[in-house]
Amino acid sequence: MAMFPIASNVEGDMAIMVVMVDDEGTMDEVAKACAYHSVGRRVAPRPDKILRVRRSSTGEVYPRDMRLKEAGLLPTECVDLIFSDA
Amino acid sequence: MATETLRNNRVGPILRAGDVAKAAVQAIERDNPGKAIHIDDRTAYIRVECDDECLLTRASMELALGRPFEMREIEISLGSFSGNIDTSPECIRFYFNKHV
Amino acid sequence: MTSLKQDEYYDLIRGVNWTPKYVPEEEIFPEEMSGSRGIPMAQWEAFDEPYKVTYGDYVQTQREKDAGVYSVKAGLERANYVKTADPGWVSTLQAHYGALAVAEYAAATAEARMARFSKAPGNRVVATFGMLDEMRHGQLQLFFSHEHTRLSRQWDWAHKALYTNEWAAIAARHMFDDMMFTRDAISTAIMLTFAFETGFTNMQFLGLSADAAEAGDHTFSNLISSIQTDESRHAQQGGAILKVMVDNGKIDDAQHMIDVIFWRTWKLFSVLTGPIMDYYTPLEHRKQSFKEFMEEWIIGQFVRQLDDLGLKKPWYWDTFVADLDQAHHAIHVGVWFYRPTVWWNPAAGASPEERAWLEQKYPGWNTTFGRTWDVITDNIVRGRLNMTLPETLPLLCNMSNVPIVGTPGDKWNTKDYPLVYEGRLYHFGSPIDRWCFEQEPERYKGHMNFIDRVLAGLVQPPDMAGALAYMGLAPGEMGEDAHDYAWAAAYQRKAAE
To answer: Which residue of C has its CA nearest to B8?
Structure first.
């Protein structure tokens, strides 16, 4: 494993957080790591929704079980975290 | 809103509050006969403006203050101004080149 | 010998120039420093500043100005205003002094460059006065803040801030260095004296003086408005240089410089002046909102003057106007949330009464920025203070060096504007910040913002504690909520009911 920096842009937040995540982790784990720094701090929790990871530059929504290292993101590249139904 | 704010022709001094500012209001009324003088008093400073051109003479300042006045003294109170400026020992002129 | 009247000799003396015989002109005025852009010396001699002052008058007037500000200070010293002032106002003063006092001193160097290297003889004269003005501003503001150092270590930052690697200090330094230290004389005249001083300094030195007077801080009100009288005079060199450029077919060059520096200055003032006016200044003393001050000084006055001089609004005008409802609110949340990383105590300004005022001044505030403050307030009410503090750093813009922000809540639009340049990924807070970079990548590409430094291993350990140490912030200096969360009391009472 390696810690990998991403820029986390959580839906509803006014800033983007730099978050270190395990590049072996799945997108759900990425979402959890990102949520930690925004949801409940500056963004209200939405228990009925899940957070999906979307590449900011292309709008591509990653599969939930995809590993971060498979996404081909550049270090510090920005991802949007979008509240979704599934 | 921003576009409306931009559409104005107001020129004149913005003076720090005090005796010189009060005198300048009187002087500008005298130096710009027939013009509407707009005054915005923001406590610390006061905007004294009219449209397109605003004159302020040393003679009127002396009259308003009741003492000798050198034009350079206005600088102590002149926090800012709107429009362009022209200075001489007898008169300061604030103006726009273009009317909008 | 007959003595001449001032207006008779003035033009003669301040237009004195010479024709060098022993040294070529380009050695006396290297292009890199002079920036004459191929405009010949004779054309620069046409420089005619409209606000004329002789050296004799200058000295006398400045002496009278200083007598005025020092006598107000002395007269009110016993009243000890700062000791009894609202903590939000004290934060205003600390932020102001730290970001600006030393920068004013630095501006003397920029004026000195024009005084030495401008090809316009009149510009050299006015810039000499400008150089003396900026020394005055540096000295006054360091002196006026110094007496408060006994009150808390945060006051030390009036002098110290710009010598540290605190993030806001890096942002201020990057902008000031770009505008004042790394430009030729003509660019400095356009960017510093015209765009910055004719425009934005009015916000911080006259707009804020109105709030200061309302707050009863007459010493500070009088000090900063007196400083602006100097700025108003020496800012005129910009307009006069602009005229020479316009007359010699260089209007596009001037417009381009204004477009770059207008945006850069806006971003800096949205951090410095915006939160002060709309959140720190006690509600009852707010003369106008930040946006209203911007409309008064920047739109109604400065941009109107651009038009009069034959220039255009910056090309990104609509984005700028929209940003008046966004940038400083977002940055304010960031500064408050990251309060340990600044040298002042941010006032939240989010009590029910203050929120009502914000909603009135910025319709829609409650469902956007208000949503963020709802979460923060709820955490305070429930005693979860740890959730009102950061555990990681925000992404910073590689141009403004401040957090990349947007509107939160129902109109969420936060977005990173990236650029890969020579293999390095840069981040920008807006397309305009990125455009500024693209105009001159060589100028900007080497700079590392705070996040770049963390990722390069310069900040150790790479966490909040390491970041605070790198910024030079010790306990007693790190910001806390200015009112110790008293503003949340009404929500606590409501929750208890």
So the answer is: C300
Domain residue limits at A44? 3-84
pTM for the whole thing?
A: 0.96
- List B residues 49-88 in contact with C (Cβ-Cβ < 8 A): 72-73, 75-88
Is there a domain that residue B11 lies in? yes
For residue B27, being part of any structural domain is answered with yes
Please provide the average confidence, as pLDDT, over all residues in chain C: 94
pLDDT for B1 beyond 80: no
pLDDT tens for C288-316 read 999 999 999 999 999 999 999 999 999 99
Tally of domains in chain B = 1
Q: Is the predicted pLDDT of residue C4 greater than 80, yes or no?
A: no
**pLDDT tens, position by position, C411-449:** 999 999 999 999 999 999 999 999 999 999 999 999 999
Residues of C in contact with A36 (CB under 8 A): 391
Give the CATH number for residue B59.
Answer: 3.90.56.10
Q: Which domains does chain C have, with CATH numbers?
A: 55-76+84-147+158-496 (1.10.620.20)
Binding partners of C (≥3 Cβ pairs within 8 A): A, B
Question: What is the model's pLDDT at position C54?
Answer: 87
- CATH of residue A48's domain is 3.10.20.270
- Render pLDDT for B12-67 as a digit per residue (tens, 0 to 9): 999 999 999 999 999 999 999 999 999 999 999 999 999 999 999 999 999 999 99
Cβ-Cβ contacts under 8 Å between A and C: the total is: 100
| Residue of A6, A20, A30, A42 best to disrupt the C interface, most CBs of C under 10 A | A42
- The answer to whether residue B7 sits within a structural domain is yes
For the cut 60, the answer to whether the pLDDT of residue C2 exceeds it is no
Do the chains contact at C50 and B87, CB–CB below 8 Å? yes
Parent domain of B43: 2-95
Query: Which pLDDT tens digit goes with each residue over C47-75?
Result: 988 888 888 999 999 999 999 999 999 98
Count the domains in chain A: 1
pLDDT tens digits, C139-162: 999 999 999 999 999 999 999 999
User: Is B100 inside a domain boundary?
Assistant: no
Q: In what order do the strands lie in the sheet with B45-51?
A: B38-41, B45-51, B10-16, B78-82
Per residue in C220-230, pLDDT (tens digit) is 999 999 999 99
ipTM for the whole complex: 0.98
Structure tokens given for C206:
């006259």
